[in-house]
Design brief:
Layout lengths: L3 E2 L9 E10 L2 E4 L1 E2 L13 E5 L2 E11 L2 E6 L9 E6 L1 H25 L3 E7 L2 E6 L6 H16 L4 E7 H4 L19 E7 L3 E4 L14 E8 L5 E7 L7
Parallel strand pairs: 1-4
Antiparallel strand pairs: 2-3, 2-8, 3-7, 5-6, 5-8, 6-7, 9-10, 10-15, 11-12, 12-13, 14-15
Helix pairs in contact: 1-2
Length: 242
């Protein structure tokens, strides 16, 4: 059994139909889903499953081997049931904008300062990345903020591609973290490219163009060690997508 992950190729798919493959307690595995199960610092999606008038809020989702499981409230639908799923789109789109903003930040810091990422996390409209910086002063933070907003305004397309693992391993710059976090069992690597700025191995969801991110503010910076500095960013809440 396998779940087809619609989000890997179409991050803008909000509504979908699927069949229940298995049920374990409150967890439901589907043959296809648009719900991102979490990973790489991006939280899992929220939303609901529906059959007619019956509706099951989804409060969590996770990947286990080839299946994506959705934790629902209430008595779950039975195996074999045809359901409709719908994302909490406002939250998902905010996460897409945030994730792309973090890639813009990562791309600028890598290009101009050669610093790798040592950690990161995100929530809707806010996120943080830790970098191998020895020194980080306010003047440099302001410089980085100006540069990342210039890349937003440049309206770079954001593209997704897939490479065989052997080919991806020939491009070490695809991994921007200090430690390679790609599980050894992955045979095909998903690549997210901000055209003209950044190319990384990444499994999360992104907007289609950097302009959709909107203004980025570096809201805080701090030292997390001798050569480990944190940049925190915040986005405007007014950007929407239909």
């Amino acid at each position: 059994m396998r779940t087809e992950p619609y989000f890997q190729k179409d991050a803008y798919r909000k509504i979908f139909e699927a069949t229940v493959l298995a049920v374990e307690g409150q967890d439901v595995a589907l043959d296809a889903t648009a719900f991102y199960p979490g990973g790489g610092g991006q939280p899992h999606d929220l939303g609901f499953l529906q059959v007619g008038a019956a509706r099951w809020p989804i409060v969590a989702s996770r990947r286990q081997d080839d299946l994506i499981w959705h934790t629902v409230e209430g008595t779950p639908p039975q195996t074999g049931t045809r359901v409709q799923g719908e994302l909490d789109w406002e939250r998902r789109y905010a996460l897409m904008r945030t994730h792309t903003a973090l890639h813009i930040l990562c791309g600028v810091v890598w290009r101009d300062y050669g610093a790798k990422v040592t950690g990161g996390n995100m929530q809707p409209l806010q996120g943080r990345l830790d970098f191998e910086f020895e020194n980080l002063q306010r003047e440099l933070v302001d410089e980085i903020e100006a540069k990342i907003n210039a890349e937003v305004a440049a309206a770079h397309p954001v593209r997704v591609d897939f490479l065989p693992r052997a080919e991806a391993d020939q491009h070490p710059d695809l991994i921007r973290t200090k430690i390679n976090l790609l599980p050894p069992g992955i045979t095909v690597v998903r690549i997210v490219e901000i055209v003209g700025l950044d190319v990384q191995a990444d499994g999360g969801t992104h907007v289609a163009n950097t302009q959709e991110v909107g203004p980025i503010r570096i809201s805080d910076y701090k030292s997390k060690g001798r050569i480990n500095k944190r940049l925190e960013l915040t986005l405007e809440p007014t950007i929407t997508s239909t």
